[in-house]
Amino acid sequence: MSNDKPKVAFYWCASCGGCEEAVVDLAEDILKVTSAVDIVFWPVALDFKRKDVEAMEDGSIAVSFINGAVRLSEQEEMVKLLRKKSGLVVAFGSCSHLGGIPGLANFWNKQTIFDYAYLKSPSTNNPDKIVPLEKSEVDGKELELPEFYDTVYSLDQVIDVDYYLPGCAPPKDLIVNAVNAILEGKLPPKGAVLSPNKSLCDECDRNESKPEKFTMTEIKRPWEVELDPEKCFLAQGVICMGPATRGGCGQRCITANMPCRGCFGPSDQVFDQGAKFLSAMASIIETNDEKQIDKLIETIVDPAGTFYRFSLPTSILRRKKMEATK
Amino acid sequence: MSNESFEPRLVGFLCNWCSYTGADLAGTSRMSYAPNLRIIRVMCSGRVDPQFVLKAFKEGADGVLISGCHPGDCHYQEGNYKALRRHRLLSKMLEQMGIEKERFRLEWVSAAEGEKFQRVCNEFTDEMKKLGPLNLNGGKKNEQ
How far apart are CA A164 and CA A170, in angstroms? Predict the structure, then answer.
């Protein structure tokens, strides 16, 4: 490590591995990156250990890209360690930015999750009712597991975050732009989300197909309807999170003829993506009749899970109200 | 919680044209009613962003009231219908978040209905007293 190249670390918390894939998917561009920087820590690809990071000088890593939400004590320790060792921390991908899909666990707590996953789920065969313990003894040796928290956190709820790279996973061009901006020192103000601050509808190819005044008379799920590949999803009666979601994703889902699910989170003007989408949705429901409204709303099976699909931990309420696990 | 001394904190978003004037009428008519509702005047019930309601709960409200003109009477034609649709959808979402739907109330109060405003305030306060405090943990780490 005797060179002057900036040092870079990658780390993963509660995530699926898709963000790691996104780095690998840089393809030949990754060679440019690796020739410009020195990767000092990347558990998925390189054999460096925690003690190697601990041995580094504070602030000696130029930038740490951390993906995944924080739901275990181990993850909290690791991101705090990386924060100490890094000049910049970038929350990489929806889970560290907003809480992401793992954040949907905030509709439950540790107790209910453990009950289901280890005892009640139909595919579980656990006659001795063994559940993970933080401390257990095997052959006279004490074994330790990290603590499983009741609540899933976004990265910035645990450590100070400098920048956010949104997306599930972040698209290639945004990653390359971010890395170049860091290398060239041309960064926006701290706390910025490294993607345009406009809603997805603003850049959507289907925007023009939207009628002047449009309303929803029925709400359909994508599989219930043959989707027109040119027409605005909302105008087809399908929930599309575009109005409440930041653009910059390259319309990956839209071009695959699937509505936006909201992985980029809200734009800077919005605190709560789900509430804002709920507001938009309620505005375009056709009817003024109370019974009709109730009937239509009944067809939105899971509003909280749909509108907060990626952003529950960073929403105003952050989680379902529940007793803490004892 | 059956605490007799519990005084619920209620937040009310009242539209300028009907409900706020109705509340004013209750005041100038010297009607007495439960003092638990903190009133915020908005130009229209359709102006109430669902984020306002969530924020109120998050900051410690035990109940939130939106009150506007009767259907058909909105100063801006349709704002109260918007409020109605948002109320229905948000109520459903609040239940998923573990907040009882009784805590989020929508009422039509006209400028002439001081008495109705008095009744709504009293009823809502009584119901919330029975239901007890909301006690949102505020997303704080419960493992601390």
Answer: 10
CATH number of the domain to which B122 belongs: 3.40.50.960
| CA-based nearest distance B72→chain A, Å | 10
For CA atoms A160, A163, A164, A165, the dihedral sign is negative
Q: How far is A291 from chain B (nearest CA, A)?
A: 11
Same domain, residue pair A33 and A76: yes
Residues A161 and A38 in one domain: yes
Question: In a 10 Å sphere around its CB, with 0-12 CB exposed, 13-18 middle and 19+ buried, how is residue B142 labelled?
Answer: middle
Q: How far apart, in whole angstroms, are the C-alpha atoms of residue A132 and residue B143?
A: 17
Q: What is the mean pLDDT of chain A?
A: 94
Position B136 in a domain: no
Which chain A residues touch B if contact means CB-CB below 8 Å? 107, 147, 149-151, 153, 157, 270-272, 274-276, 278-279, 281-283, 285, 288, 290, 293-294, 297, 300, 302-305, 307, 313, 315-322, 324
Measure the CA–CA gap between A21 and B27, rounded to whole angstroms. 64
Q: Is A319 contained in some domain?
A: no
Q: Measured between CA atoms, how close is A77 to chain B, in angstroms?
A: 15
Domain of A305, in residue numbers: 200-314
pTM: 0.93
What pLDDT, in 10s, does the model give residues B87-103? 999 999 999 999 999 99
- Whether A322 maps to a domain, the answer reads no
pLDDT for A28: 80
Instruction: Judge: B84–A275 Cβ closer than 8 Å, yes or no.
Output: no
Domain carrying residue B95: 10-131
- The alpha-helical segments, DSSP class H, found in chain B are 19-28, 50-58, 79-96, 114-131
Mark yes or no for CB contact B136/A304 under 8 Å.
Answer: no
Strands A163-165 and A86-92: parallel
Closest approach of chain A CAs to the CA of B70, in angstroms?
Answer: 12
pLDDT tens profile B110-134 = 999 999 999 999 999 999 999 999 9
Query: Which of residues A184, A208, A241 is at a domain's end?
Result: A184
Please check whether residues A22 and A84 belong to one and the same domain. yes
Asked whether residue A26 falls in the same domain as residue A164, the answer is: yes
pLDDT band at A91 (very low <50, low <70, confident <90, very high): very high
C-beta atoms of B84 and A297 within 8 A? no
Which band of pLDDT confidence, cut at 50, 70 and 90, is reported for residue B135?
Answer: confident
pLDDT at B1 over 70: no
Indicate the SS3 state at residue A87. Answer: strand
What integer best gives the mean pLDDT of chain B?
92
Q: Compare all CA atoms of chain A with the CA of B98 and give the residue at the minimum distance.
A: A321
